[in-house]
Amino acid sequence: MMSEQEAITETRMEWKMIRVPKALHDQLAREAQKRGLPIHAIISEALNFYYGFTKSRVPRKEHSNIDKGLWYIMKLAMSVGALKADPSFDNLRRLSKTLAQLRERLDIDTSELEEFIRVHSIFIDDEVKMELNAITKNLIYQIADKLLFRVE
Fold it and tell me: Is the dihedral of CA 26, 27, 29, 30 positive or negative?
């Protein structure tokens, strides 16, 4: 049977010193103080997060549809947002170009939004913006369904 002193000695953690730049130490100390943890716990959490993040990554090739889907969703949302913020013929032209790319490259049915902008052109009031948002949301769903959610 182990004595009390042997048990304490056996469970004692071995400590080592590391040198870090003062700015990093100060940042770690602030985070530790804010969260009520020792600095080594903050470092340990950061390493665990890093390991989890890097291990869960899949090679980029396997994410090509996700990248493509997210790119076109952003492109569509930004084009519509630009038209809503500044209803100009330039922004209308850019949105039309984006819709053509969605139709030709992804085989997405953009006819509803194309008809909508043909009818309303650059005359966009609040009611028109609400309808434009709904149509855009439907297109985003189509892109997501085609490139993000389907397993082929």
Answer: positive
Q: How far is CA 145 from CA 16, 50, 134, 135, in A?
A: 52, 31, 16, 15
Which distant-in-sequence residues (6+ apart) come within 8 Å of 138 by Cβ? 112
Q: How far apart are CA 81 and CA 75, in angstroms?
A: 10
Burial (Cβ within 10 Å: 0-12, 13-18, ≥19) of residue 75: middle
pLDDT in tens, 50-85: 777 666 555 555 567 888 889 999 999 999 999 999
pLDDT surpassing 70 at residue 124: yes
49 and 67 fall within a common domain: no
Q: What is the CATH number of the domain that holds 9?
A: 1.10.1220
9 shares its domain with 42 = yes
Written as six digits, the tokens of 92 are: 């209308």
Domains in the chain: how many in total? Answer: 2
| pLDDT average, residue stretch 33-43 | 91
